């Protein structure tokens, strides 16, 4: 492949994630997007990737979910000659850490908001991570077929609660029972809502301008009048869309629609492929790497254990940052300083995976792994690069983990080690006595760990409660050494090391954290394991 063809392949890729609070419509929207790509034939093909309410301790359910989450990890399809890779993000809040890591591998995101519920808790957290990384975001306001909040109020709420600066690229004509259609501000056309089958691809009607009488004929005098007034307001209040600002993460375009009725989805998709970024450069510790450099590099953002406990191989998901990834070619695993070849790299197409010979920047390949990979590892054609930006966030729940079967301590250690590499939870080792503490985002993970240790490693563990409020990573740059010495002595009981051997302070309450910060002002406490401003 010559350079020109390679550049073309890079330029036609769009890798993104859809984020939302559970139930806002992420799964439904994903499915409709796949429908446009012809990747699936009918709605209902993408299985629901969420843990059903009330089933949290049903392990069959957990296993089922793990199976689905492999199948839907990456959904790739072609639309108008653009190769689209959707990276799936679990909606359940107990798996938020997984979502945060997946966000290191996307080049942009679509934020789905339920028009009736407005901005919800999970959306706030996820958008904050995207903002920290300046990830370009498009907002999709869903469920316009239902009564919900006024469009202006909702955009206000988005600006206030999510800290975004929005500008609508489409605007609803009515809502709920009265939803007449969507006006595409950018293209100046109207998509009429017929409430018809979700398989229909709606046609749009172009109008000359807003004074066009056709508008009144199409939606009625009253609705046309309201729309004219509202659009005047839009022009008065919101900035003009500017792609540079969107790409820099400074401006977020808004689309309206109903995923369930496949309405406004085509506008969203067409808008998306027009403005969303192709693979972006990525910062390694050594330098900034451009996607169209000829040498291959990529990093592991997700590891999935094999569903079959007899074969303990795993699938490591690599985001390709630069160059072409080729089957059977030796690549350097930087952390292990070892060359590895992959005879059956998987690429993902909608719901199936296939072995592929070549993949390009923006693509995700799944590599079979027998324990070589950890989340965050870098693979290159030879150059020493370390990709940055797969931080750990402070867990919310902490428990001591104890071995319940002394004959199986080796199995337990190995199991814990591998599950932590997969990113199921975080392990902290107390400095004082070497006791091991597991930290998780949700209580559900403790059960998952116990279950998997038993079924995949033949080890058994028990937990012991521990009162920790937050894990704070300690930054000692510019630290006063006497102060640090005193801190280490006084707080010895609360100090631990994470898997990367970074020093962590386990604060037992927000009050004690505040007091500690006041007492030791030269020490910096972070809720995230990486301190420098993050960049995608
Ligand atoms: P999630 O992945 O974000 O968690 O949400 P999901 O797509 O599963 O949607 C959650 C619920 O909202 C589903 O209903 C879905 O049918 C509904 N929904 C999604 N988009 C729209 C929309 O545009 N309009 C309306 N009215 N509803 C929408 P459910 O009853 O919970 O599940 P199901 O039995 O229909 O799958």
What does this entry look like structurally?
β2 and β3 form a beta hairpin. This protein has three domains: 8-73 and 83-275, 3-Layer(aba) Sandwich (Rossmann fold), CATH 3.40.50.300; 282-380, Translation factors (Elongation Factor Tu (Ef-tu), domain 3, Beta Barrel); 397-526, Peptide chain release factor 3, domain III (Alpha-Beta Plaits), CATH 3.30.70. It is built from 14 helices and 31 strands. It has 536 residues and is of the alpha+beta class. α11 packs across α12. The chain binds guanosine-5',3'-tetraphosphate. The site of guanosine-5',3'-tetraphosphate (G4P) has 19 residues, from α2.
List keywords for this structure.
3 domains, seven-stranded mixed β-sheet, globular, Elongation Factor Tu (Ef-tu), domain 3, translation release factor activity, codon nonspecific, 27% strand, binds guanosine-5',3'-tetraphosphate, Rossmann fold, Alpha-Beta Plaits, 14 helices, alpha+beta, 536 residues
